[in-house]
Amino acid sequence: MPETNPPIEPPKPSAAPLITVDARALFQGQREIQIEHEGVRYRLRITRRNKLILQK
User: Fold this and answer.
1) What CA–CA distance (Å, rounded) separates 34 from 54?
2) Are 34 and 41 in contact (CB under 8 A)?
3) Which pLDDT score is estimated for 2?
């Protein structure tokens, strides 16, 4: 008789509230910053149209 796997449950939402960071505090007057995540650097920049772009 074949074994049946239990159903996969979706991840449960976190009970902690999301942290909000003001972009002005993050950029400190600059148009571009670097963010490092797991050893990889990403560029976060403000475009001419005031949109945010994240690039690897």
Assistant:
1) 9
2) yes
3) 63
Q: Which residues pair with 54 in a beta bridge?
A: 44
Q: Give the CA dihedral 20, 25, 27, 31, nearest 10 degrees.
A: 100
Those residues whose C-beta lies under 8 Å from the C-beta of residue 27, and which sit 6 or more positions away, are 33, 46
CB 36 within 8 A of CB 52: no
Per-run averaged pLDDT (10 residues), the chain, 56 residues: 74 82 96 97 97 97
Distance CA 23, CA 44 (A): 11
Q: Which of 50, 31, 32 is nearest to 42 (CA)?
A: 32
